[in-house]
Amino acid sequence: MSKETPVPHEFDGESLESVFVGRRDSAARPTIILVPSVMGISDLERRWGRQLVELGYNAFIADVFGKEFRGAERDVMFGEMERLAGDRPALRRRLTHVLDQASALDEVEDDQIVVAGFCFGGLCALDLARSGAGIAAAVSFHGLFDPPGLEPEKIKAKVVAFHGWDDPMVPPEKVVALGRELTEAGTDWQIHAYGNVAHGFTNPNAHEIGLEGVRYNALAAERSWTSFVSLLEELFGADD
Asked: Which domains does the chain have, with CATH numbers?
């Protein structure tokens, strides 16, 4: 049985409220930080968090936009995404702050943290890896690959990207560019590309956002989640 606990925190005068999902015994375990898509924390991330708890891990669902934007309209959230993505040094500091908040929890094994993000959250996961953060892995589900344009740091994390080949936001040349970037950085990396799959493929409600090239794909969602769980087992051993 899992429990969900709000984790309020402040960044640059903004009130954020992440959500910790763990077991009721409060024991320290490997923890996956889930960074949501542009729409912020929703029931979908909470469900993924509960699935991770069933597998023997904890989950920390990161609020990067701010508590005031919980449940806001699409146009508002896209504006906030553009604001955060428009200042990558500030975004890096924000993500480091989120990592520090998760690491400070007694239930979190400090050296056993994975950051997994979806859409914009995928970019966030990659940016944390690019910052040189001491995380075990950074995982991007249909994320954005654009580099931050910052001085490169040594990437310590394993990096895995799950990508829909027909994603209009990340054309093939950007996939190749990410592979080249990670190779030049000496990173342990994987890119899983799914044919005939668009952006947002893990979200059953992806079509509701009303954008061309954004849609759910049940098979790609299952394949990527299975590969994600295999990565966690590789890192931390089988579930308990």
From this structure: 2-236 (3.40.50.1820)
